[in-house]
Amino acid sequence: MTKVFYGMAGTALAAVLGALLFGQLDSDGIQRVAGMSMIVFDLASATFAIRTSRRGDLHPGTRRAWRWIAAAMGTLVIASVSFAVFKSWSSFPAPGDVVRLAFVPVMLTGLLTLQRRGGGGRSRHKTLLDVGTVVAGGAMVMWYFAVGPLLDDGHSSGAAVLGALAYPIGDLVLLFGVALVLTQGADPSVRRPLRLMAIALLFEISGNIYLGFLRAQAGLVGAIPASWQFACWVIGHSLITVAAFEQFRTARGEAPVTGSDRERVVNRLPYLSIGLALALLTGAALRAGRPSWIGLVLGSVALTGFVVARQIVALRENHEMAVTDGLTGLANRSRLGDALGRALARSSRNGRAVGVLLADLNGFKEVNDTLGHAAGDRMLVEFAGMLRRSVLGSDVVGRLGGDEFAVVLQDIGSRANAEAVIRRLRREMELPIMIDDVVVRIRAAVGIAVAEPGATNADALLRRADEAMYENKRRIKSGVPGGTEEEEALAAGLWGAAERGELRVHYQPVVELPTGEINGMEALVRWEHPERGTIPPGVFIPIAEKTGAIEEIGAWVLAEACAQVAQWRAGGRRLHLGVNASPRQLTGGFADRVIRTLAETGFPATELIIEVTESVQVENPAVVAELHLLHGHGVRIALDDFGTGYSTLRYLTQLPIDILKIDQSFVAVLNGTANGAMVTDTVLRLGRMMNLTTIAEGVESAEQATELVELGCRSAQGYHFARPMPAAELTALLYPAEVSSAATS
């Protein structure tokens, strides 16, 4: 229907304009052709307007507006018939003039009834000033070409003056209505028809001005030779027909309804009026031929031009600020919506698919809570850069708010190309970043949706992308989006692994040097996957920390280990227990949970050691408070992997540390030389100076154990003494006589 209509309308308009401008018709012929064509266009406009006003899927205000517009087009039909019957197209007054002037208030009512957007964020004063500027510019044009010259002619009759004033006043009223609706911001459903009507009324006004100019030049009331005013009127009437058809087509769901930054053109209407007024002023001064006035006018034009240019630059800057995210420099929600609307509209024309990618950061809250808001902002900025580097230059990257991002993938072509963007983003996220001396790996849940060519519903596309993103989150339980399929499967399996009986606690003895007597142990978790077998902790622990499953796992390990070691202690062995705590566990009542577990298992608080690494953030008051609460209850705090992280001494001064665990990398270089022992010796001396216990980790040979004794180390653990083992094996190691007796009985 659309192609047929535009083909017929375009052919008819071209034929009429050709006849009017190049057909060498006499005045009567031109008036007949113009009159009949305007009657046809006006009848078509009224028909489409009436049909549109009956559409139940349009806003009630829009339907009322089109009823008024249909009535206005009816007045034009009556006026055109009157002009044709009385052959009074260019004379005033005529019977048709009264009906023609009635068109003005009826059309104005229709324009002002059209559905608005609720102000569009503009103040009432700004709107009125902009409208006043546009109307003032239009008034200058009408005065210069039509009204002024006629008033200068002292011989003009009252009828001529009345005719010179009636139509310009009506045109100014219409110009006021168009400018008011445009500057206030029309609802997207009527935006395109309104723009077409605005252009149509400008052609109508231009024809009236030209007719007034001809009358002023002739200086008489009688007939004016037919001229270009008929072409302007015909174009104007045809565009009103197109506007009515566009509104009818939009109501039927055939046309995309999108936002657009073309509203910036509307904001520049006052400047266009100022430019037009200055051009008229300059032309009038040059025509007058008085050098003194010419200089003043040109100077005024220059000054006004500079001020206007400055305002336009400020307007552009303000617009950029209004549609740009202040932190990341990406597009904000408003610009993303406009970009998606334009992309879908373009897709309906060229058949190229459009995609939307949504991303939600994982771990953003933890970074905010542990490192502070400045670090969280840095994380957002870094991820914004990753997104930019992962997409094409034509794609629009934006931040929806918080830790949510979106990308409008323009002309993506196919889903395969969209998934290539995800692969590039995953490669970007594989590279860790440094935030406040802490290595952070950014992870995000990503969802993508691709619209079929010709699809126009932006909300539906966004909804599909959002569902895909949250399905990603649900599938891996907020796991490691961006990781491999194996990692995602492991992340999903970690949740509930303890309840399913898949987790095991192994214990690595801590021995006293030089005797080798077991005086404690460290609890280490193992995962016996029902399908994959034993999964090393180095594989699943990082995933558990990222997903949050570490909190569930850590609570289970603490309870299991405390209960088991309490049994060994009841058998006469004085043993302490070390349990690792992830940074993610050390908030939200961790100390209370530990104290409650101690009470439930009967394990003494003074024999429990909570081992933390240097990834614990001393800037977070909540973390520090939890550790101090535990320490005050008698629980000892150990700093694990001492010396491998950042800001080590700051941890010793701000956290209630009791024990330093020397990292195995320093033990591994013990070779009997001063250089090999330098770091380990320094840590041992530091421990003695600060009255801290030291435990060496990763001892794998008798030579290393001997050198540690020589350096003054009194506790160690490692494969040289015993590997981590299940509770049953360790029981045999702790009570060999009892096990042997049980075996022979």
UniProtKB/TrEMBL annotation:
SUPFAM superfamilies named among the record's database cross-references: EAL domain-like, Nucleotide cyclase
Annotated ranges, domain EAL: 487-738
Originating organism: Actinoplanes lutulentus
Alphabetical UniProt keywords: Membrane, Transmembrane, Transmembrane helix
Protein's name in the database: Diguanylate cyclase (GGDEF)-like protein
Family matches, as Pfam families: EAL, GGDEF
Transmembrane segments annotated in the record for this chain: 37-53, 65-86, 98-115, 127-146, 158-182, 194-214, 226-248, 269-286
Domain GGDEF as annotated: residue spans: 352-485
InterPro entries: Biofilm_reg_signaling, EAL_dom, EAL_sf, GGDEF_dom, Nucleotide_cyclase, Rev_trsase/Diguanyl_cyclase
Gene3D superfamilies hit by this protein: 3.30.70.270, EAL domain (3.20.20.450)
Keyword match Transmembrane: yes
